[in-house]
Amino acid sequence: MPCLPCLPNSPFPIPKIMIHLNVKLLSFYGISLAFVAVLFKTVTAYGETNLKAPPAIAGSYRFDAKSLPQCLKSDALVLTIQQSGVYLSGNLRSGSSEGDRQTTAEEKPSLVGKWENQGLSLSGAVPNLAGCSESTAIAQNNYVKLRGIVEKDTLTGKISLTDRAAATDFTAQRESAAKPQKKEQH
Question: Which residue among 11, 167, 183, 186 sits deepest, i.e. has the most Cβ atoms within 10 Å of its Cβ?
Answer without folding.
Answer: 167
